[in-house]
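Follow-up to my earlier ticket, as requested here are the two runs.
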Amino acid sequence: MNTYGEAMKWIHSRLKFGINLGLDCMEWMMERLGNPESRLKVIHVGGTNGKGSTVTFFRSILHEAGYEVGTFTSPYIEQFNERISVNGVPVSDGDIISLANTIKPLVEELELTGLGSPTEFEVITAMALYYFAELHPVDLVILEVGLGGRFDSTNIVHPLLTVITNIGMDHTRILGGTIEKIAYEKAGIIKAGVPVLTAVKQDQAIRVLIEEAKEKGAPIFQSGIDFSVEQYEPRPAGECFTFIGKAMKLDQLELSLLGYHQTENASLAVAGLLYLKEANMISLKEQHIRTGLAKAYWPGRMETISNVPAVIVDGAHNPEGLQAFSATIKQRCKGKKVTVVFAALEDKDLGSMLPLLEGLGEDIYFTEFDFPRAASAARLKEVSGIKGAKAETDWRLLLKKILRSMDTNEVLAVTGSLYFISQVKPVIKQLLHKKNEHRNQ
């Protein structure tokens, strides 16, 4: 493969192999690559929601402390290369070509062994681990779980620290239809003797995590017990809170990411890094924490694209995510006309999600987008049962119409699937740019 386009075409061709629940292919590829995962210092982050934001808080603080930090996240919002980044900067197109050329011969050889065909996610995970160990060695890697945990391809690592953000009803067809079953799969990333930090709240879920941690001899630290968020205060451009841990209290920490839930994600990162500091694994000062949290940026998560007119995008793709989105919009947009645009995948828990939008905006639009398993606008409207909601099949025309008529006291909130947000965000930016150009003429 000589071009970026050829590399991407090959990588995406692996999508047809779907999801592989097991580590056999990963173990085979890692062995053939010289076990790069064994040479990495990893913080492993799983959970239902908040994984990407938590990864960002970890990365931003560590970067302020002078470390070179690799991150592996999914999905991407604007560019595929975002998934493999160093200090928040996506890898180059040339790196993607080199990595694809390294992994492709192994994939072809693996397919002859009887172990099966590696999926797209397995290929990208292998690329990331090889990159951080060989092509661009880094000080630490923050690795985001793709799906579940126990059989996720990232579970090939033995980390310094395991983080489980929260647990909700998502991917139930694969992970199970109860909180306990989903918790069991998420708990699969817990390793022998490796400390676990979690913000999981449900009693039935936390019991599963505690039992798994006990079996593995892994110390577990819980939000609300071992560390906590106190004195929460929303600010115009973010959030403010006090972190209280067993050994340290940090007053008035500021975030630029919106939503109370982001203070919980931030507290996980702070607690985890303070643990590593106490264990003499990293060097860290209070100012690194403060500055890192304030600078942390994660696209597509309660992201304000424009202030005038106010446009917010958020990948709220399951009931827990939509609850957090709804709470944040209600808190921050009082007295303003809110227009909500929503699109989602058909295999999500639409029956639990869609009613959460009722009353959230003066106008609520359901739409659809070009993606496998995307639900139709008509289907979303029907399931929602929201009187007055509208179904629009062409989201580009819809956004153009809304943005053209918005005034300074209105808010456009676009939410739903992260795959939808990845398509929407650049288009909104273009439309806003044209609107500003027209205004200035």
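Run two:
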Amino acid sequence: MTNNIFWYNGKLIESQTLELNINDPGLLYGATVFTTLRVYQNSLDSNLTNWQAHCDRLLFSLQTFGWQQPHWNLVRQGAQILLAHFPILRITIFPDGREWITGRFLPDNLTEKQNIGIICAVASSEFSRSLPSHKTGNYLSAWLAKTSLDAQEAILVDTQGNWLETSTGNLWGWCDRTWYTPPKKAGILPGIMRSQLVNWLQKQQQPVREETWSVELVQRFEAIAYTNSVVEIIPIHTVHQPSGSLQYNPYHPSFQQIRELFVG
């Protein structure tokens, strides 16, 4: 199986390079929007794949920015071809409507991370994402936050030190028999997996509170984790911060309820 294929502007291309005009705003400014999805049951129409929600995310940003929509039939055609090779697809749209789809494999150590958790570190507030409610190609701040810290993930914060999200996903915390997640109004990306989980937990009669993750609240949590459409849910057992480290239980029984979503 090869990594050297991708879909671009209506065509399947066998290469590891993409040719762009040197004045392309996607190249110069990161002027693209994208979404990353995990294909379940080898089908774009699986409820867990959530194809329509990913397309709606792209459409929302395109309409907000006044950009041209792609030929959606070509987007689906490219995704359908690539899912035979990859379980994870990244769909990127340029301002003029060109579509670019790449694929990758699940991380080798994903199951281990899901089982035992990871170490995170709180990033400087200067690493705030631009246009946080949109998934744009300008992901430099999140990438810098993750790669500049001695940890497996970075936690982005606002200027008051409130925790917002990780560099690649949404945060979840458990205490008082309730799940907590930072509110969208705080300036986070409203993740598709986040929306799926909120809806699913509420159907399970499980309380979910959207509340600012202040310095005081994060110390009350018994367990925390992050989610995205690729990794599902990964517990966080340690968070390094300038004032010292916080420890959480990566084996907390509350995680079992969330994991039921992915086997149902």
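The only thing I checked on run two: The longest helix spans residues 51-65. Let me know what else you need.
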